[in-house]
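Encode chain A's predicted structure.
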Amino acid sequence: MSLIQILVGALLALLVSGLPANSVSSNGSPAATTPRLVRIFTATIHLGEFSPPIPIPSGQRIVAKVNNGQLNGQGLNGTIQGGLSVVDIIGNGQAIVNNVRSYGTTSDGIPFLIDESGIGSQTDDFARLVLSIGGKYAHLAAQFLFTEASLSSDRKTVSTTGYLTLDR
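Encoded structure for chain A:
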């Protein structure tokens, strides 16, 4: 089993486990429940040029400008106006740590900031998404959101799906 499979498996286990405060098993210990995942958007993100690799102790770091993008879905629609992606490639490339900060406006004009931090391979990753937003979308800022993303083979476009976790 590769390092990336182990890391993604561990991340998924963390994402789908939960311990509601009022849930107790038959032996009196907390009972685990699995949250329901609700897709709230898909996104297409267009990247600019990548920096040359920057040496870091664990491997190399690559920086790319987020040029623009679109969010579409029943929970959130809008335009990504810009941002920055910083990717740490660990060791020989078996794993990456991805940090993205992007900004834009919803289809009805409300500004937002997205902070995304995750782990994966050089083509796919899972990330925790923190959304700073107000207005009728303010409830999303207090929710546990995560994404799964794939980088196109030409390294110019990222396709992302955003999920909201809800108690069953």
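The chain is about 10% helix and 55% strand.
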